[in-house]
Amino acid sequence: MGTPTLQTGHIGLNVTDLARSTEFYRKIFDLDVFSEQAEGDKRFAFLGHGGDIVLTLWQQSTGAFAADRPGLHHLSFQAPDIATVHKVEGTLKELGADLFYDGIVPHGEGASSGGVFFADPDGIRLEVYSPVGADAAEAPTAGAPTCGFF
């Protein structure tokens, strides 16, 4: 008997400033705060949708995300359509977020799927994409997946 099919339960991220990160993720992903401890030595927040925890934030880090070390490469979130990706892009621009490319780009040469690639306040690399509709722009990384080398 093999392992049953698993699905992601939630994503937990270490952050340097709980209030700043909570506000960022709430605005980008329209998340509700289910539980948080914003004072003291053990600060955390649980965020989600419709009763399901999607993201947990833990204020227990210093510095910035190190893309040159083994571990997390990026987090990717699928949107239902390209219009939703455009909405996220607008929110990112309002927040002054660090975008890796100039707007929405395809996942690769000739691909219709694609999205917006950006960093959170601690430099964690993120992607919001749609399976179709991103083919209006050119792929920024020739000969390789866009989400692999940003």
From TrEMBL:
InterPro entries the UniProt entry points to: Fosfomycin_Res_Enzymes, Glyas_Bleomycin-R_OHBP_Dase, Glyas_Fos-R_dOase_dom, VOC_core
PROSITE patterns, per database record: VOC
Domain (VOC) ranges: 7-131
Name used for this protein in its record: VOC family protein
Source organism of the structure: Salininema proteolyticum
